[in-house]
Protein 1
Amino acid sequence: MIKVKRTIKYDADRVQGFGREIMGVTGCDQLPSCIQCGTCSGACPLSIYMDFSPRQVMALVRADFKREVLTSNTIWLCASCYACTVECPRQIRITDIIYALKQRAIKEGVYPRKMPIPILAREFTRMVVSKGRITETLLVMRLFLKANWKAVLSSWRLGLGLITTGRFVLKSEHIQRCGELATMLASTEVTATTAAKPTHRTSPKKLLAEESP
Amino acid sequence: MKYSYFPGCSLKGLGRAYEESLLPVMRHLGVELSELDDWNCCGATAYMSVDEEEACILAARNLAIANSNGGHDLLTPCSACYLVLNKTQHNMEDFPQVRAGVEKALASVNMSWKGKVKVRHPLDVLFHDIGVEAIRQKVTRPLKGLKVAPYYGCQLVRPYSTFDEAWNPVTMDRILEALGVEVLPFPLKTKCCGGSLTGTVPQAGLRLSYIILKEAVRRGADVIATICPLCQFNLDAYHSQIEKSWGAARIPTVYFTQLMGLAFGMSPRELGLQRNFVPMKPLAPVAW
């Protein structure tokens, strides 16, 4: 038997209305005016690692290909450098659209399990909600423990460097009026911390093909 | 001159050398800073990925505190904080639904949105309010012969900055020149350092850091000057990993405020220069 893989999408793969929903998010309303010029992909320093380039993601969102977009590694590889947004000749806030897609993927739990980037976002959020501030070294340790505990062992050199340069902070930073912040955050309808756990079971390795450096 | 001061989490942690050098330099130039009372995390890029409305609420609390702190311009040294606070101000003005949510959240704790506070980066304040000439006059130990690659990174100049250019900013170049250093032409000055990807996807993130380091070395720089705590960390802390993967590109990365302090005659230790992974070579007239 020959194994075949379809490389072109069928109309049936679309989730009607998805594009409109994304365009309805704050700052994403300019998406319909995309002319597919590819300036965003050219400006993006990380597009060479992406499964869909930023230009392709814009087209996929507009055409309702929800699954493809939310499970792509593109949205997680965006480092928020805003190069695409500044360069776009149609003034589309591409970075903000990518943010909207990240938020949607986290909300629906369709990011790959153990993928460190969404886990960092989640742990970061939790720390801010409970303490009001971030203690970076504690955050990174939490991230490693949740995503890949072996990384703790392999980054001993970094940890040692931080200790010797006096940059390793173990005392948790926090604000005085934590309750005030909690009340403010509770005034929104959905709380970030109640976001769904990941259900998408693609291994991070598959999604982000390991490249030998 | 008086400003409110929003340090952000990094300046109390990994980027503490930034604060250690910023505060004495500003004091030396006659700038009075008053740290915001009980400021909270700006949310950075990570919170924005989870919930944008809540991210704006986090930032708005700081802006509201700044407003009740006399409404002085808010000095924000970290690029991520600078971006998020500015973004929130823009969102408040451009999108009524964001404004409604934020105002509701502020009202729930008896705070209110009293309008704009100007969020400003130290480069902006130093260049436009204090001026290059005033900085030059304070230089007691010109850093002659030091070759510097000026590195601005992304989030200070894109997309909200109004005080400098998105691709070829020059305010730091001009300030550094006033210190007597030789500022090298550095085309990668606004290329991304990898941000948090250096930790989460090193094969992609660290490569971006490596590209910047290698270019600075190739151009003969002695040191890279930066304005952002995350850029400084990425360019300074990962040399052993970078070396293993792509080869050596060893060059120190320091905050521009540390170079200013040195030129003003301050000691390396009081400017936090001992915190570098890759230490800066002692300058001839400076006792380290």
Note: Chain B has a mean pLDDT of 95.
Protein 2
Amino acid sequence: MCIGCGLLVLVILALIAVTMTRKAWPALSHDGLRFFTSQRWAPNVEAFGSLAFVYGTLVTAVIALALAVPVSVGIALYLSDLAPRRLRGPVGSLVDLLAAVPSVVYGLWGVIVLAPWLSGVYDRISDVTSPIPILSTLFAGPSKGRGLFTAGIILALMITPIVTSITKEVFDTVPRAQKEAAYALGATRWEMIRAAIFPHSRAGMVGAVMLGLGRAMGETIAAALVIGSSPQITANLFRSGDSMAAVIANQFGEAGGLHASALIALGVELFALTIIVNVIARAIVGRRLRRA
Amino acid sequence: MVMGVEQQRRKPYLVLAPFVAVALLASACGGGDGAAGGGAGGGAGKEAPIRATLNAAGATFPNAFYEVAIAGYKQVQPGVTVNYAATGSGTGRQRLQDGVVDFAGSDGLVAAADVPKYKGEFVYIPTVAAPITVSYNLSGVSDLTLDADTIAKVFSRQIKTWNDPAITALNPGKNLPATAITVAHRSDGSGTTENFTKYLVAAAPNSWSLKSGSTVEWPADTQAGNGNQGVAQIVKSTAGGVGYVDLSDAKASGLQFAKVRNRSGNAVLPTVEAASAALAGVTINDDLSYNPLNADGADAYPITAPTWILVYKNQTDQAKGAAIKSFLRYVLGDAQKQAKAVDYASLPSGLQQKALAKVDSIVVPA
């Protein structure tokens, strides 16, 4: 029974991969390897290159993780160890509420409220960072607010509840004996967290981050509305970009023939990319766990 | 939550009561509408009552008009339910190819290479047309005039400020500020983009090199909005913004429209009358395809976009075939009078007659 269910999931995944690759084949055979290496996406002249979208997907996901993971771990630590018992329930529920907000609402809020406000913030940041060498390339202005960084912020908001709740569950499983032992040896609170909680929870935290990363890479509508829809590879995080999920959502309605096939090929590439990133991350963590 | 657990166990059905009440009220209201509609339809229609469900998908551009037409048609034939999903022209055509819908709405013609993929011969039925406005946001400047070359240069970022010589030359006597131009275009694939870029290819071939399509390679320093409303919102909120928006959405957002110089050299505002003038002079092909972009005519608005309904010529289901013909006759007949109220141009009578003849040519099994 259980083996059957497990196999069923694998079979469904395999079927998805196979049928999508078949539909994507006309575009892949038309463009060949250029599909994966070219930056140029011009459906009206049938030039399809996915590199700009891969870049946008990865960059927004990394920004989202960089913003969300420290905050989520902080919230989870607070909820599991530091908060007064009375507050744990309500604060935990509030964080979970963030997950209940539909992603299109995040996107609309981002477009109507956040992006215009961030435009002014970005201009001030770029004024400050203009003399500093690397930062001036990463955070150059002027900006209208819609771009890779704004998409990263919205994605960070969306993955925080997932990473927080899983991390909190993992932190709650740390045996009290280990925490008490750390205190008994004279550790401060932060030293106790580093010595007792983090080593025990490493695998679980990585799992939580992987889930968050998967959601960030696949998030469609919220990213589509705030990312600026301008497929380009740029080091300037305040500029517009585009991501694979966003371009599929935006262009599929009007696409026909080769264009639709190319968008399906992008979907296959996103599928493969998510699996590859997951495998690499697990390999890195596996090596660290074995070493520890 | 105030009730104790025991009380909850004894009276669970009380929780359901409000939902049941709402469901009963909703069905009563729905039933009431149907009865009233049936009465009106039975008296007014000359056709025999038909019972069918028609599924359709396609362009978002004529969606506002089709919604009005479908609501009006329900009074004529209450037994026919028409579902039009505004998914986009490309998806609509694809669904007609796959036989999933009964007819499709499309702003563009089917490519020759795709024609064999359809399940049989299909016909184009033109329904309405509407102007695509060039909306702008420049305080203190009203009645801006632009021409095709200037529009092409603005949208391809060859002209970057409002007081550029090319624009001031077209607007003598107006004080144009040195504000930077912010170009807004569509982030999603769109028939509106396709018609707008087709116009630029036809009218400004020397200034426009980005070709035409539902998506084009817009320069990187432009802004993208989702849907006509998204572009309207960018123009509305950015001083110096300019974008192409269909008439009904531009009006709804309170945007200013530029006058566009047509082929005869007259600067024309994007109104329904000017769109009709563009339709009046076009050449109509045998299959009822036509191109009103950059049309001849002293009062013609040059960026007028057409739209068609695609339907198979040989219908296989008697009830559905009869319903399709009846609905299309309504769209080409009484519904045309409602087009202007929703900012669409009705077809000129010559094209209307040809379209009705095309509908009659649809074969329905007896």
Note: The longest helix of chain B spans residues 13-44.
